[in-house]
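Input structure tokens:
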């Protein structure tokens, strides 16, 4: 399966990387590498994750973030990467906007 990451997800990852870099040098790079490892796993495991707000949700192992994606025509499309510490009502608003 191919994996396609939308610009909105990449932009959010870049902001999160900067946040972690401000915490301590090197953590931002570790965050970014960890996340792309998770996203790369969709090549094999895309479509097996539970569905929330109409999207499959892959919870990251090392950071409190979730990857929201859909499988279309044999391709996993990553729409959003979001911080799980957000208010769930805010998540509903975000997903209503992208449906």
């Amino acid at each position: 399966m191919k994996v396609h990451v939308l610009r909105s997800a990449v932009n959010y990852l870049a902001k999160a990387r900067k946040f972690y870099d401000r915490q301590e040098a090197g953590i931002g790079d570790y965050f970014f590498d960890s996340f792309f490892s998770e996203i790369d796993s969709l090549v094999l495991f895309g479509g097996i994750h539970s569905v929330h707000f109409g999207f499959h949700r892959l919870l990251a192992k090392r950071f409190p973030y979730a990857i929201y994606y859909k499988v279309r025509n044999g391709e996993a499309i990553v729409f959003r990467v979001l911080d799980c510490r957000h208010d769930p009502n805010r998540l509903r608003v975000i997903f209503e906007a992208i449906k």
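Residues 7-23 form the longest helix (17 residues). The chain is about 45% helix and 30% strand.
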